[in-house]
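User: I'm putting together notes for a lab meeting next week and I want to include a structural view of one of the chains we've been expressing. I don't have a solved structure, so I'd like a prediction I can at least talk through. The sequence is below, exactly as it appears in our construct file.
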Amino acid sequence: MQRIIRIGTRGSRLARAQTDIVIDRLKKADPSLQIETVIITTTGDKDQKTSLKDIGGKGVFIREIEHALLDNTIDLAVHSFKDITCQTADGLRLAGFLKPESVCDVLISRNTMPFNDIPSGSTIGTGSMRRRVLLKRIRNDLKYVDIRGNIDTRIARLDEGVYDGIVLSEAGLIRLGLQDRISERFNPEWFIPAPGQGVIAVESRANDESLFRLCQDVFDKEQFLLSGAEFMVLEEIGFDCRMPFGMHSRIDKGILTMKAFYENPENGTYVEETATGSSSLPSEIAVQLVEKLLG
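Assistant: Thanks for the context. Below is the predicted structure for the 295-residue chain, given as structure tokens.
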């Protein structure tokens, strides 16, 4: 009897859409695969009012799913890569990555108003300290407030007049068919995204060689290299969720370019650095970037 592959995911509309993308890719590679989706509620789903830094940071969206992997309740886990902390749980490994439709941050505003045209004193909702730092560098005359909840909830609160604008990931909007709501797209070369923004990550048990090989064969090899390099930077630099940090990586004609920034929350010092080199040496470029950032 063929094994049923149980894939664990959060229950939000975006998480389900991303899991459907993963399942579609797997079934295109092998139509005979039997796949079952298992919905898991995480700490981050249960508490949508407290800011992320106060309830445990990014790990609150994956902890229960990783536990399900470890106790064999599921066989694969689907995450937004940006929700993964700098270390996977013992006994697990990242098996594959799917290239994002976009890495950009975007603005959704009332009356589709561009960012620079929004009236002074208006309220912008964002749950990300990284976004808040970058937005303030452009316009310090706006009021930036915390926002939680899934994409649909955030857009609904904008439409209700709670906010004059909100900033989200473009990839998530595309996956939900909401890209027509975008008022402005921020260029990732200067509005540096979160590490792994828009990337879908697939996690497996470290001892499950057959599923690991399947994921390696099916998912994007270039994205595996890019995300692996970014993951190495996160491990080496050791920042927690309270440090505003962004990173953008790309490969062009065999050259890997990694750009990152952080702002020290204690003194407001802003540091931005870039490292480049052959895409065949991602670990060296990652180390080079960390050394530059830490000076």
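A couple of points you could mention at the meeting. The radius of gyration is 19 Å. Residues 237 and 290 are 6 Å apart (CA to CA).

User: Perfect, that's what I needed.
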